[in-house]
User: Which sequence fits this backbone?
C-alpha cells in the first residue's frame, strides 16, 4: 500500500463532505406554502419523508446526512453578534453569585429586571437553537449543541466550536425528533469529544424533564462511574442557577443524581413569583450501571448514554445488551426514550465484531416494513480528518490539505500542514509494525473499513493488495460504480425474458450490465438450454438447501459473476456481480441465481454438496448452464456429477485449487500493480466489491464454511480458468504446502 502512497492519497481524497444540501427534496411551491402557514411540525413528516428539527413551523435548508433528510430552522433576517466566529458569551459576574432559585427570589425586582431578559433568551436558545455568523456564513447550532458550547465545562475549560460537532448534533436532534428512531450509533475517532458531548446531553436532558431516568453505560462499570463523577456531576455543578435544579443528597454523588426542585423558566411575567417551595419535585435521576448484558433490564429510560460500545469484551456482548436496553426505551410500539451510542472499535475479536454488526444494522437507508432500521438506531460516521486536534482552524473547520500559508487554529496555534499529510506520515512511520498500524487505523479511521480493520498475520492471501483495494473503493462515489437491484421475469412469466431493475433494497450488487444484444442470450439444443455468452464470463455459487435452521440464521447463499479476457464490449477479468443473501425461502434464492445466469447468458460453477440448486436448474431445462467440475475429464465424473454438474467442496485438491485461484486473482487484479506486470505501473485494480475483499482477508482454508463470498468468488475464477484434466499425467494429491505471506512491513512478502 505504502509504495504507491501518492496514488492512494489521491484515491482517498474523498469529497470531504459530512452532508449535502438537498433543497430540491421538496418543491419550492410546497416549501413556501407550508412555511407561510407555519405548518412544519417538529418530528418526522411522512408526506415528505423528512425529519423536521425546527420548532417554529418554518424550515430552511434540508440537510442530507447519511441518507437522512433533515429540515433545519430558517435563518433569521438579522443575526446577532459582533464576532465573525463562535465566541461563548460571558456569564454576568453579578448573576453568577446567585446559586439557587431561592437566592434569586430573595432579590428585589430592580435586580431581577436587569437580568430577566438575559435569562429568558438563554432558555430560548436552549430550546430553539442559536444562529451566529461564522466566517461570513449564517450558521445554526441546535439547542443541545448550544448548551454544550456555552454551558458545559470540559477538561480544557470551554469546548471549541467544530463543524463536525455541529453536524453531529443536528443528526442527533433528528434522531430525537424521529418517532421511528431509537437513537444513534456513532462511529468515531479517538478524542473526538463524544464522552463530554454525551455527558452534556445527559445533563441537559436530566435537568429539564420530570419523572424520568437517564442511564450511563460504558465498556466497564468503572468507566461508566468515572464518566458520571468526572463529567456529568461537574457539568451540573457548573450550570447557572436558572438551569440547575435543586438536588437531593451530596454535591458530589458517586452513583446517582436526584433532582428535587426543578429549574423554572424565568420570564418577565413570573420573575417576582416566590412559590418555589410549593413546586412538585422534578423526580428525575441520572445514574450509571455496571457493564452487563442485562444492565437496566426492566427499567424505563428517557435517555441512555452508551459510551465505548465498540469495546465490550467477552463475556459481555453489546448485541445482547442492546436487545435488552432497547426494551427500556419503548412502551409497546411507541418509542419513549433515545440512546446516544458512540465508540471507536476494538479488534473484531475483542468486541469490535459485535459493534460492527450493530453499526451496519443501523443504516438509515435500509428499513423494515415498519419504517425502522434493523437495530432501530441510525448510524453516523465522521472521518478522523474532521475531528483531529491541532488541525481545526479558528472557524472550527478542518485544515485538510497543506495550506499555502499558515492557518490560525482554534487553539490559537498556527497550523502549517494538513491533517491528511499528518495521517499519511503516521501511517508511513508504522509500516514495519502491522499491529500498531492496525490499531492506528481503528483509533483514527478515514473510512468505515479503517474503523473495523482486523488484519491477521496468518492470512494466506496478500493483505497489502486487499487493503489497497478496500481503501480505494472507500474513496469512490459508490453509486457511480456499483448499483443494487434485483432480477425478475418480464410480465411475471417464468422462462421468458429476465429484466434488471435497480433498487436500493435489492439483493444483487452489480458493476456492469451487458448491452441489450447480449442479455438473455440462451441457446437451446436437444431440449436443453445453454448459455450464449460463455466466452464472456462465468458465475460461481455457494448455495444452501434449507430455507431455515433451528433458531434462525444459517449461512448465506452467495453468487459472483466474473468476466473473461475477450474482445466484446465488456470489462475483462473483472468481477461484475455480488450476491450474498439468505432470502425467506431457498426457492427464492434458486430463482435469483437462475435469473442472473439467464440475464447475463453465462454458465455457473456451483458446489454440488448441496444439490437442490443444481436440480432446480436441471428440472427447469437449464442443465446446460451448470458447468461440470473443471478439474476432471468428463469420463471421470460420477453419475451425480454427470446428471447435474457442479463441484464438491470436500476434497483436499479442490480446496487447494480454489484457494490458489483466489490467490492468483488477487496478485493480478487487486490493489496496485507496482511493477507494471499486469497493467500500467501504479494503476489500481477494479475489484469493487468490498464485502468480498473483506471475506478474502479473513479466509481460512481449513475452516471455509463461514466464508460464503470467498467460496463463490473462487469458484467463478476456477470456472473461467477451466482446468483441463490431463489423463496422461499420473494423478496425485495436491500438496498441503500452501503459499503463505508475511504481512509485516509495507507490502506482503511470500514466505519461502
Assistant:
Amino acid at each position: 500500500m505504502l509504495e504507491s502512497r501518492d496514488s492512494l492519497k489521491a484515491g482517498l481524497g474523498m469529497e470531504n463532505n459530512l452532508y449535502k444540501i438537498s433543497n430540491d427534496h421538496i418543491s419550492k411551491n410546497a416549501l413556501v406554502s407550508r412555511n407561510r402557514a407555519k405548518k412544519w411540525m417538529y418530528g418526522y413528516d411522512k408526506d415528505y419523508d423528512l425529519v423536521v428539527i425546527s420548532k417554529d413551523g418554518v424550515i430552511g435548508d434540508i440537510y442530507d446526512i447519511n441518507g437522512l433528510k433533515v429540515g433545519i430552522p430558517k435563518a433569521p433576517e438579522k443575526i446577532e453578534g459582533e464576532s465573525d466566529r463562535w465566541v461563548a458569551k460571558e456569564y454576568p459576574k453579578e448573576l453568577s453569585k446567585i446559586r439557587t432559585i431561592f437566592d434569586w427570589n430573595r432579590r428585589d425586582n430592580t435586580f431581577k429586571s436587569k437580568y430577566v431578559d438575559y435569562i429568558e433568551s438563554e432558555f430560548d436558545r436552549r430550546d430553539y437553537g442559536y444562529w451566529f455568523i461564522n466566517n461570513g456564513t449564517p450558521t445554526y447550532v441546535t439547542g443541545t449543541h448550544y448548551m454544550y458550547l456555552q454551558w458545559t465545562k470540559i477538561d480544557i475549560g470551554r469546548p471549541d466550536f467544530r463543524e463536525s460537532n455541529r453536524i453531529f448534533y443536528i443528526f442527533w436532534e433528528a434522531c430525537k425528533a424521529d418517532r421511528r428512531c431509537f437513537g444513534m450509533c456513532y462511529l468515531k475517532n479517538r478524542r473526538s469529544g463524544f464522552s463530554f458531548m454525551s455527558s452534556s446531553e445527559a445533563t441537559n436532558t436530566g435537568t429539564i424533564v420530570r419523572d424520568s431516568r437517564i442511564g450511563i453505560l460504558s465498556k466497564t462499570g468503572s468507566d461508566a462511574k468515572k464518566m458520571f463523577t468526572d463529567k456529568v456531576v461537574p457539568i451540573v455543578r457548573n450550570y447557572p442557577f436558572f438551569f440547575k435544579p435543586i438536588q437531593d443528597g451530596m454535591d458530589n454523588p458517586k452513583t446517582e443524581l436526584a433532582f428535587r426542585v426543578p429549574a423554572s423558566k424565568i420570564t418577565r411575567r413570573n420573575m417576582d413569583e416566590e412559590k418555589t417551595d410549593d413546586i412538585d419535585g422534578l423526580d428525575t435521576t441520572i445514574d450509571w450501571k455496571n457493564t452487563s448484558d442485562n444492565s437496566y433490564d426492566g427499567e424505563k429510560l428517557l435517555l441512555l448514554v452508551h459510551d465505548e460500545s465498540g469495546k465490550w469484551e467477552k463475556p459481555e456482548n453489546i448485541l445482547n445488551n442492546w436487545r435488552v436496553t432497547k426494551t427500556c426505551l419503548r412502551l409497546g410500539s411507541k418509542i419513549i426514550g433515545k440512546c446516544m451510542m458512540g465508540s471507536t472499535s476494538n479488534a473484531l475479536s475483542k468486541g469490535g465484531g459485535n459493534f460492527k454488526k450493530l453499526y451496519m444494522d443501523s443504516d438509515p437507508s435500509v428499513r423494515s416494513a415498519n419504517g425502522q432500521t434493523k437495530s432501530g438506531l441510525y448510524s453516523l460516521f465522521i472521518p478522523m480528518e474532521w475531528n483531529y486536534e491541532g488541525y481545526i482552524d479558528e472557524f472550527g473547520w478542518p485544515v485538510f490539505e497543506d495550506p499555502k500559508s499558515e492557518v490560525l487554529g482554534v487553539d490559537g496555534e498556527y497550523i502549517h500542514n494538513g491533517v491528511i499529510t499528518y495521517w499519511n506520515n503516521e501511517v508511513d512511520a508504522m509500516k514495519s509494525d502491522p499491529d500498531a498500524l492496525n490499531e492506528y487505523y481503528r483509533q483514527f479511521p478515514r473510512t468505515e473499513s479503517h474503523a473495523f480493520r482486523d488484519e491477521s498475520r496468518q492470512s494466506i492471501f496478500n493483505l497489502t493488495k486487499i487493503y489497497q483495494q478496500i481503501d480505494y473503493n472507500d474513496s469512490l462515489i459508490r453509486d457511480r460504480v456499483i448499483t443494487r437491484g434485483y432480477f425478475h421475469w418480464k410480465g411475471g412469466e417464468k422462462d421468458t425474458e429476465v429484466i434488471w431493475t435497480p433498487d436500493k433494497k435489492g439483493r444483487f450488487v452489480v458493476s456492469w450490465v451487458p448491452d441489450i444484444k447480449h442479455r438473455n442470450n440462451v441457446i437451446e439444443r436437444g431440449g436443453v438450454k445453454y448459455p450464449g455468452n460463455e466466452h464472456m464470463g462465468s458465475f460461481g455459487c455457494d448455495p444452501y438447501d434449507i430455507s431455515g435452521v433451528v433458531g434462525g440464521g444459517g449461512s448465506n447463499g452467495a453468487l459472483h459473476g466474473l468476466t473473461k479476457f475477450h474482445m466484446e464490449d465488456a470489462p475483462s477479468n473483472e468481477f461484475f456481480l455480488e450476491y450474498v443473501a439468505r432470502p425467506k425461502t431457498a426457492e427464492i434464492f434458486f430463482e435469483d441465481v437462475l435469473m442472473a445466469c439467464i440475464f447475463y447468458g453465462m454458465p455457473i460453477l456451483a458446489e454440488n454438496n448441496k444439490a437442490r440448486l443444481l436440480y432446480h436448474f436441471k428440472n427447469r431445462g437449464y442443465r446446460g448452464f451448470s458447468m461440470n467440475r473443471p478439474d476432471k475429464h468428463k469420463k471421470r465424473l460420477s453419475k451425480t456429477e454427470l446428471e447435474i454438474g457442479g463441484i464438491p467442496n470436500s476434497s483436499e485438491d479442490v480446496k487447494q485449487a480454489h484457494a490458489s485461484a483466489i490467490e492468483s486473482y488477487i496478485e493480478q487484479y487487486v490493489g496496485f500493480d507496482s511493477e507494471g506486470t499486469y497493467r500500467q505501473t501504479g494503476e489500481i485494480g477494479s475489484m469493487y466489491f468490498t464485502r468480498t475483499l473483506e471475506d478474502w482477508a479473513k479466509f481460512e482454508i481449513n475452516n471455509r464454511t463461514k466464508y460464503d463470498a470467498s467460496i463463490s468468488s473462487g469458484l467463478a475464477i476456477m470456472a473461467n480458468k477451466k482446468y483441463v484434466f490431463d489423463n496422461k499425467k499420473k494423478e496425485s494429491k495436491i500438496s498441503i504446502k500452501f503459499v503463505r505471506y508475511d504481512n509485516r512491513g509495507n507490502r506482503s512478502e511470500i514466505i519461502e
